[in-house]
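Practice record 12: protein with manganese (II) ion.
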Amino acid sequence: MNASGIDHAADPLDSVSVVVPTYKEVDSLPHLLDRLRALRESGVALDVLIMDDDSRDGTEALVAARAEPWVQLVVRTQDRGLSPSVLDGLQRAEGDVLIVMDADLSHPPERIPSMIEALREGSDLVIGSRYVEGGTTSHDWGFGRWLNSRVATLLARPFTHVADPMSGFIALRRSTFRSGRDFNPVGYKIGLELIVKCGCKRVGEIPIHFENRKFGESKLSLREQLKYLQHLRRLAIHKYGTWSHFTQFAAVGALGALANLALLTAFLRLGVPASWAVASAIAVTMVFNFVLNRRFSFSYARGGSIVRHFFGFVAACSLGALVNYALTLTLMQPPIGASPQIAALAGIAAGSLLNFLTNRYLVFRQEHVRP
Ligand code: GDD
Ligand code: MN
């Protein structure tokens, strides 16, 4: 047993399946397959699964012509995309060790033996990493791509502290993969998905030189990058459960408070009488918070009636406000006699917590999940 509670001792690591997602990589594939064959000839018992999203660029003819029994091509016509292809390949793979790598020669296959060695030494998952000591990228990486990669890495911090969680060059045991639950193939970051969903605590990193692609072009679009945010949110829900709902609820609350102040200021500037300005700012903010909370914090309940949700939300918030009011006044009075600000902070905390709990468990109930 190791730190993750995964018992690796019984696992042999004799055979290796390399899963390669491809879309229009016919020019790179011969080079990749040659290098993988050299690895085989040096004694690594590997087979290759090319998961091609129906590229129609001659990939099928190429693989057929090479007629290498250890190379299998799967042409996919449904559920396309990088992560779905990789997950599909990992499910089909039969090796003791599973490798995921790009086809465009960015990931050096020659590093695979070191990655397997790291698994032997007890890692749950191993990354071919650009950002550990000894890892490099080609010089012509523009500032834009570098910054992008760094920001994305920073956003992954709540889930893993590895240096290069964005890497698509990964090794893990088949048994580790099979122990994973609730895979959600959104976007590009399959490594991060595997680390979180397979519960990998000991993640090793082997330095690689990340080569720029020479043939074909990258498929990483802005749309894929936006999907990364959606992916992060789903990982948070998976990992932190109710805490992630609470965090989203708190973020919406903070945004709502800002919106409230902005609206109030605007109404007053427009000459709206104070009592009306305050009341309408509250009303608008309440609708604003409701919409965001229903869309994000409690998205699991979106199948339920919006009318019922709305009135439930208003009732829950009013109850929260009442508790806030009562507690603040109580704390200000003897015997406690707290300062109004301290009392108000405690009131806000209690009111918000109650607000969250009633919304989470009474208004936006789990059984409203759409089947
Ligand atoms: N089956 C399938 N379907 N494969 C795809 C698809 C798809 O929709 N889109 C891309 N691929 C394949 C490509 O053919 C390539 O083998 C690999 O996935 C990576 O795609 P690239 O287009 O080369 O993307 P990249 O170089 O920008 O992204 C790489 O680096 C990122 C970090 O900088 C990948 O390794 C990513 O996983 C990694 O996050
Ligand atoms: Mn690439």
